[in-house]
Amino acid sequence: MKDETAAQERIFQMLTDHPGVTRIDTHGxxxxxxxxxALKIKRAVRFPFLDYSTLEKRKAACEEExxxxxxxxxxxYQGVVAITEDSDGxxxxxxxxxxxxxxxxxxxxxxxxxxxxxxxxxxLDAKLASAAADAIVASHAAATPADGQAWLSAxxxxxxxxxxxxxxxxxxxxxxxxxxxxxxxxxxxxxxPLLAERGRRGFVRRCHGDLHLANIVLIDDxxxxxxxxxxxxxxxxxxxxxxxxxxxxDLLQHAQPGAANIVLNRYLATTPADNLEALxxxxxxxxxxxxxxxxVTLARLNRPHSDRRGILDEAQQYLDLAGKLIRPPGPRLIAxxxxxxxxxxxxxxxxxxxxxxxxxxxxxxxxxxxxxxFGVEDTHRLPSSAYxxxxxxxxxxxxxxxxxxxxxxxxxxxxxxxxxxxxxxxxIAALARECNVPLNGLFLVxxxxxxxxxxxxRRGDASDAxxxxxxxxxxxxxxxxxxxxxxxxxxxxxxLHNCRHAIAVxxxxx
Length: 510
Description:
Blueprint: H1 2-16, E1 22-25, E2 29-34, E3 37-42, E4 46-47, E5 50-51, H2 55-69, E6 77-85, E7 91-93, E8 98-107, H3 115-119, H4 126-142, H5 148-167, H6 174-200, E9 204-206, E10 216-219, E11 222-225, H7 233-236, E12 237-239, H8 240-253, H9 257-269, H10 282-298, H11 308-325, E13 333-338, H12 344-351, E14 362-365, H13 366-373, H14 389-408, E15 413-416, H15 422-435, E16 439-445, H16 448-456, H17 467-473, E17 484-487, H18 492-509
Parallel strand pairs: 13-15, 13-16, 14-15, 16-17
Antiparallel strand pairs: 1-2, 2-3, 3-8, 4-5, 6-7, 6-8, 9-12, 10-11
């Protein structure tokens, strides 16, 4: 490969001789940024997981990258272009001479708009997080189902490969790596039957495969997935939750727990309910992804003028996260009740990211369940006939069933509903006892004027409550409450503080 490498360096020099060209190197490619164009050339390298050692293999890899990525990001991926040599030895991009190299031809985007860069500037907003989840959902819906047995068989080797890679160089504590590997294998054995069943049911697909934040970019204010794995279909043929886990893990690593929770909840709300029954796989999936990212970070040590201390610190942070994620704390059930306009839904979503295990609790909302029951869009207004006692009972039964699915997978759940009747609250208490998890019941209260003002300001919300409904609810007989009563008449921040205090007090009493 020495001759191949020398020939490439000549090409790289030609490309960087042009004013304004920026070169970015990764372990497998060199990218040349020039104005509105980007050329990505596969480097003449061979690793255990990829082989770009010949021109034919690099051309095939470029063509495969276009095939895989163009459906995800047609505004970025334009095609494959040859680097040619004329008879006088001069080099051109797309010239008439003999092709001596190939490049992926891309439209350049604003590199500062990738999610890893945006995450460093402050919290990612809810709209962006939801849109990112929608992009991932769409990519999984379009992905080709595959035989799940190969994926299942590859997981132990993936865990061992992480252990071996993390030991190399002696940068990390050997006992920490050993414990992570052993705990990961134990987790895999527990969930192996679940993963096998998911493979049989079509949840193993040819996915993006590398969905960390640097591979999601905002273009025209919409998240676009790019740089999907093209060099090995087997690496990218995984359970869809493993694909999602990379994004969730990296959001946590970038101190974005709120966005991670939104992505998880949006994904679960817009994909088959079977995913609720696979949440027990998330700790292993996210941990493995964090360990992989630790290794990829270490690879930057080989680059010239690298910040050795910074790289080692970042890699250690990923390793620490891997160890934390593989040992999740036990789940809990939280029920948020209150009359319309008390702020239940806002509170539930604000509370969810801080309820372990990561990336926070699954939120189950009665308004959305009712809309799903009638097969309508979230914001479609239902008639009063959809609010009979019989239908409301069915709604709460469905909420309890879904919460049971979440809790039995070792994940926490927050149920958001009015809970105006004692039997509804008693059923939640019975569910918590059945699942052997702690229960925090929070009942929000606010005066009628405050509730009506909030209802009047709603736009595009799933709730059908009106100011008239709020007035009628004043006459409800709530009965014996048995839950913590939370003053929700103040700001959202004050209500959240009050609820977190009530949960902390409850935890101390357990």
